[in-house]
Structure formats: structure tokens, C-alpha cells
Amino acid sequence: MKTELIQIGKTVNKHFVAVINDYCERILHYMPFTVTTIPDLKNTKSLSEAQQKEREGELILKALQPSDTVVLLDERGTEFRSIEFASWLERQQHTARRLVFVIGGPYGFSSAVYSRADQMLSLSKMTFSHQMIRMTFCEQIYRACTIIRGEPYHHE
């Protein structure tokens, strides 16, 4: 199974970039994993929130393939403990050809993207910056991989 993270806008904080890159390299020891960054929209001051979500949504949908299993990172999604997430990811490895996680823009997702999603996942009920969520999510993917393999990274 191929796994991809699609995100809107690049990560600008160099410290987050370094940690994200480190976890992405670690994940590659367990499974194919890529990060695709859709560039931020230009001239967003002239766009309403709804228009911005629609335009970002069009770009997200263009990046998807019809057979993709699409999981949105969204505050209204299912919350897992790390062990539960690892079990869920392992099940996906047996059923999905390409598992695509999506982190949207600052206003969330368009209705078209929500309609295309197979599932929504929440990392917390708290609000975090998109930069921080990217780092945290990559760490959780890595943690899940080590749990699946029975490696000592995760402690209960």
C-alpha cells in the first residue's frame, strides 16, 4: 500500500520542517510514504472563506485518484489512541491500494472534498496550527508503524 499526505501550503517553520523530514525518512523504512504540498492560493484577500475552500478543494480533488482511500484530518473526525490508530492503519494496509491523508487549508474543506472522503480523523479536540499538525501526524504514522512491527518506540 502506498501512503500519501496531501497538505495545503508549505511548512515554513524550519524546526518543524526538520522534524517532519526526519519522521518521513523513518516511515520509509516501513512503507512507501510521500508528502504532496499544494501551493497556497494567491490573492486570497479578495476571496471569501467559501471561495478559498472551493478553490483549494478543486486542487485537492485533482491530486486524488479514483481508487484512493481518502482520509481527511478534521476536528470532527474519529479520534484514536495510538494503538487503535496502528490497528486501523494495519487494516488499511490490507484493503487500500493508496491511502491518502489530507490536511486542508485554514478554513477546512469544501463540501466536494467532504463528499469524496472515505473517513475523517481527528488528532485532538484541541486546535493546533497546521504546521504543528503536520509534524504531529507524521510522528503518529511513524509510531503506528513501530507498533505494528512490535518495536519498542511506543510505551503504554
Features of the shown structure:
156 residues; alpha/beta; five-stranded parallel sheet; 5 helices
Total strands = 5
What's the overall average pLDDT, rounded? 95
Going across the biggest sheet, name each strand in turn: 2-1-4-3-5
Overall structural class, as computed from helix and strand content, comes to alpha/beta
Largest sheet: 5 strands, parallel
How would you sum up the global shape? globular
SSE order: EHEHEHEHEH
Q: Report the total helices.
A: 5
Poorly predicted parts: none
* Rg: 15 Å
How much helix is in the residues?
40-55%
How far apart are the first and last residues' alpha carbons, in Å? 27 Å
Strand content: 15-25%
Structural commentary:
- The protein has 156 residues and is an alpha/beta fold.
- It has five helices and five strands.
- The protein has helices spanning 14-27, 49-63, 82-95, 111-116, 130-148, and strands at residues 2-8, 33-38, 69-79, 98-103, 119-122.
- The protein has a five-stranded parallel sheet with strand order 2-1-4-3-5.
- Helix 3 (82-95) links the parallel strand 3 (69-79) and strand 4 (98-103).
- The longest helix has 19 residues, at 130-148.
